[in-house]
Amino acid sequence: MIRWILPAAVIVSLAACSSEVSNEGTPTASSELSPGGISYTLIHVPEDDVAIHVAWPTDWAYREDTNKAAPLVGAELMLAGGAQGYPAGDVGERWADLNAGGNLYGVASDHIVGELVFEREDISEVVEIANAHLREPLLGQTWLNRISDGVEQSVNEERSQPAAAGFEAVRWTVLGEQPLRNALSLQGGNAFEALSRDDILAWHAETFTRTPEAVTVAGDIDAEAAGQALDSLLKGLPEKGRSLARGVKTDFKPRRILLHMPEAEVSSLAFVAPVPPTRLGGEIEDALLIDALGGDDQSVLFNAMRTHLRASYAFGAGMDNLTGDHRVMSMAGEVDTSKIAEAESVVREAYRKFRKTGMEGDIVERKVPLEAYFSEINDHVMDLARVELQSSLDGGDPGRVLRIMDEIEAVTDVSLNERLKDAFPEMDEFTVIAVSPEADSLPDACVITTPREAVDCLYSDGVYSDGYHPTQARVGAL
């Protein structure tokens, strides 16, 4: 999951900062406890707006007995479908009148995050509106049907593309029949058709409590006012949620797969492998390395494609979270169908060289986008609260967001090379997945016609290090 707003960058864990109160006008951070016993981090900055971000833990995606569409539809329904004392569709107009905003969304299958931003003088009214929609949403059937249809259409449109089908095949190889795969994909089942109001009610009842896992408040607000606002925001919610069970088994052994889609107008090629979770750190290095590898038209992968294939394919790299404990790295893009095999060789050689020799160019220049973003983050309370909240979920110290510039400055060529060696996969650890209208586009691949068949593709156990000589792969039992 990308957790801050930078192109081709991954979520960054943040360096530690003091929790002491400093001079007026200087951003500070502190760990606080509301009068009602809610723990939170307060980031005090001299901004007119205030942001409150709350993360509730969930294991809905991991369980057999849950409808996996409920969180997607439920999050929208809670906000748009009205609440006790607030007609359906009313909250959007009220937010606009107050120059405020609210949002609910899922993070890495493990949390539901609620965000509020508002002007300081409107805190009481905004919190009252938000509390009603958290505590007593109407969840009416008519609005449920409308929102469910819209979400289903968006999901189907997004995942009907060939590249999306390729990543769906990879999810089958990694997760198989487990509930989490269905939650990540929402394909091949009837989750939306089977979704009922009872599903939404059950999801709401077990998710939203007075004991969230992490809370951040950012803006020109003191601890007394922030604590009172949090108690009011979560008033009337259950005291404690259910015990969580997030058991999942992953299988990242590399495969070599071609998904044959005769109707595909373009072909795609992707490489996917596991990387350490964000809670273990090293993400400043990850952001810089991923950007250099496949972040823009000056990156290693783009230049390799342009030089060797004389093509300007948008071939990039990134990292994303399946769950809080399972993160993947990918290199992917569209390619000419007749050049899939050649493109694979180009990517392999470019990545091997990158991992061996490290990032080229001036490291100072590579840091500029990160430094530009974080040098202005104190002016944006939503970004401050969001980054701090994600750091909290990764076990970071309170207020780490305020010292991120120090951590960026501390990155060196040595630390980058160590990160490449210790955390970035070797080339033979990647699963390769091509999606093509031609069944013979990727030599020696396990050819399938639906993403689900990928789970039956044998592991690829050939020699990758110096010359790629894969063992013949086929469909069969693992």
Automatic annotation (TrEMBL):
<dbReference type="InterPro" id="IPR011249">
    <property type="entry name" value="Metalloenz_LuxS/M16"/>
</dbReference>
<feature type="signal peptide">
    <location>
        <begin position="1"/>
        <end position="18"/>
    </location>
</feature>
<dbReference type="Pfam" id="PF05193">
    <property type="entry name" value="Peptidase_M16_C"/>
</dbReference>
<protein>
    <submittedName>
        <fullName>Putative Zn-dependent peptidase</fullName>
    </submittedName>
</protein>
<dbReference type="InterPro" id="IPR007863">
    <property type="entry name" value="Peptidase_M16_C"/>
</dbReference>
<keyword id="KW-0732">Signal</keyword>
<dbReference type="GO" id="GO:0046872">
    <property type="term" value="F:metal ion binding"/>
</dbReference>
<feature type="domain" description="Peptidase M16 C-terminal">
    <location>
        <begin position="195"/>
        <end position="366"/>
    </location>
</feature>
